[in-house]
Amino acid sequence: MAVYVSSSFIIIIIPPSFLHLDFSNPNLLPPSFLKNFHKRDLKIFKLWWLLQPILLLLLYTTILALYQGEAPAFVADDMQTRFSNGFHLQLKDFESATAVGNKTYVIGGIDDQESSGVRIFDKSTVNGEVIPTVLGTKPTAFESHSTMLLNKDRILIIKGNSKSNVSVWFLEVDTRFVGDQKKKFGTEVVAWSKGVIGDAERPIVISGPSGVGKGTLINMLMKEFPSMFGFSVSHTTRAPREKEENGVHYHFTNRSVMEEEIKAGKFLEFAAVHGNLYGTSIEAVEIVADAGKRCILDIDVQGARSVRASSLEAIFIFICPPSFEELEKRLRARGTETEEQIQKRLKNAKAELEEGTSSGLFDHILVNNDLEACYQQLKKILGLNGSMDATPKAATEVFDLPMDLSLSKIDEKILINSGKANQKIVLDLSSIKGGAPGRTRGLYMYTADDGNL
Ligand SMILES: Nc1nc2c(ncn2[C@@H]2O[C@H](COP(=O)(O)OP(=O)(O)O)[C@@H](O)[C@H]2O)c(=O)[nH]1
Ligand SMILES: Nc1ncnc2c1ncn2[C@@H]1O[C@H](COP(=O)(O)OP(=O)(O)O)[C@@H](O)[C@H]1O
Predict the structure, then answer these.
(1) How far is the C-alpha of 436 from the C-alpha of 172, rounded, in Å?
(2) Who contacts 183 (Cβ-Cβ below 8 Å, separation ≥6)?
(3) Hey, how many other C-beta atoms are within 10 angstroms of the C-beta on 221?
(4) Is 368 in the pocket of ligand 2 (CB under 6 A)?
(5) Between residues 179 and 200, which one has the greater pLDDT?
(6) Which residue of 98, 122, 193, 433 could cross-link 442, Cys pair, CB 3.0 to 4.6 Å?
(7) Angle of helix 371-381 versus helix 214-224 axis, rounded to 10
(8) Residues β-bridged to residue 163
(9) Of the candidates 282, 314, 297, the residue with the CA atom closest to the CA atom of residue 181
(10) Burial track 424-437 (b if 16+ CB lie within 10 A, e otherwise)
């Protein structure tokens, strides 16, 4: 016996063999059956043959539906779930499935280091299942979670049985960043982005020619506001300077390792600068956001261009020297480069100054003539004029989310059903900033009564 399912009907086909009857060969019919045939089973026999045309018609319409892209499935033995795009999948423990167009994204499952945490079932491929390239850091434990598709380009994941400040994740499936990466990798790509609760400000990109004073200004900012800013520690293939520490000023690495990591999608941006490779890893930006700090990136103009094209939504600041002669003087006075390196940096500075001041890439251009005056201007741009601004923002309320969640959406608000009567948890997405790679910031989560969302 088989139970046949399509969206429009269910057919139960009972073959004669199921009734232990073979009408095609009366010799094989059991004597008891022959004896009582007229009395007991004639009705079944007639009904069976009467039903055949109807069953055939139903079968025909099912085949038609299948041809039009609907996938029926046998569900007698398996517990399968059916999705709006016609997919039927057998989900494992702690897996969820979200339909996005022709694809169904299966997320989660028992956490192990090997698993990428995401499987895609794509109707337009021969095999159906696609294992994507997964960018960004995935959530550590998946266990119970609920998902909801947002704007057809990212899946919201809320982890049950967790603290509210670590419960929100996004899996980007069709954002601009993911689209660019798909072209680059030539594979299916998805990107994780952790949701950051609270009003974390936009990251800051600072560019300018070598020796202009970027590092000096960044150090002043970090010293005055240690709890507010965090430095994105870049990777570089250049040799460390005398006072530079691995993991603090840069992650010093070699070219082949860095190239492999770039291929694996670990970098938000990278560029060849003054003959060496420099790059910002996705992790470098994530670490700062996870510490609840505003991320500062000291990167060259090419890197700034790449970040501008990403979803990091940073503020872009370009620092100029008062003159080329002064730049040369500062570079020499710093005493960290050989004459050959100084010449290379000065040559590149011309192109950087041209690009930085005329491309429209930067939101603000500062001239670092008097250091203190330039620092004050930088603080003004960052909204740090008075001492009030330096006060850390009030901590957002952290609470426990229940194991089983159900989600619904009203405008930009996600209602998380907590199971408690009259009480909902609200996730407000109206001020959302950023996204993969890095973190999705500007989320607000609070508990509310039904009448007060
Ligand atoms: N694109 C990119 N540029 C970087 C990165 N880290 C540093 N840079 C840039 O590389 C250039 C050289 O940096 P560095 O060797 O520290 O020399 P300095 O600028 O003279 O202190 C500077 O313009 C930096 O802004 C990075 O991660 N990505
Ligand atoms: N406004 C300024 N006037 C004079 N010297 C400066 C000024 N700003 C920075 N410097 C000096 O210039 C040198 C280069 O500065 P640095 O911050 O290392 O530049 P960058 O990080 O842009 O390469 C350092 O020795 C620093 O002390």
Answers:
(1) 7
(2) none
(3) 22
(4) yes
(5) 179
(6) 433
(7) 60
(8) 400
(9) 282
(10) bbbbbbeebbbbbb
Decide: 234 in ligand 1 pocket, CB within 6 A.
yes
| DSSP bridge partners of 246 | 250
Q: Is 166 helix (H, G, I), strand (E, B) or coil?
A: helix
Summarize the confidence of residues 285-300 as an average pLDDT.
91
Which residue has a Cα nearest atom 21 of ligand 2? 215
Amino acid at the residue 379: K
What local confidence, expressed as pLDDT, does residue 251 receive? Answer: 98
74 vs 323, residue with greater confidence: 323
Please name every residue paired with 88 in a beta bridge, in sequence order, or none if there are none.
82
Q: How far apart are CA 359 and CA 350, in angstroms?
A: 14
pLDDT > 60? residue 17:
no
Tokens of 223: 């010293």
* pLDDT given for residue 419 in this prediction: 74
Could you give the CA distance from residue 100 to residue 132 in angstroms, rounded to a whole number? Answer: 15
Q: Which residues of 244-270 are buried (b: 16+ CB within 10 A; e: fewer)?
A: eeeeebbbebeeeebeebbeebbbbbb
Adjacent-strand bridge partners of 140: none
Bin 365: left if φ > 0, else alpha if -120 < ψ < 50, else beta: beta
- Residues annotated as part of the active site: 241, 334, 345
Whether residue 142 is predicted with pLDDT greater than 80 in this model: the reply is no
ipTM: 0.98
Tokens of 209: 């020619």
pTM flag (> 0.80): no
Q: How long is the chain?
A: 453
CB atoms near residue 151 (< 10 Å):
9
Q: Which residue bears the tokens 């039904």?
A: 450
CB of 107 closer than 8 Å to CB of 155: yes
**CA max distance for the chain:** 116
The ligand with the least distance to the CA atom of 319 is 2
Element (H, E) at 52: helix 42-67
Residue to mutate, 330, 342, 353, ligand 2, most ligand atoms under 8 Å from C-beta:
330
- Pick from 59-68, 356-365, 380-389, 397-406 the range whose average pLDDT is largest: 356-365
Token readout for 196 is 């950051």
Decide: helix, strand or coil at residue 203: coil
Is ligand 1 within 6 A of the CB of residue 238? yes
How far, in Å, from the CA of 367 to the mean position of ligand 2? 12
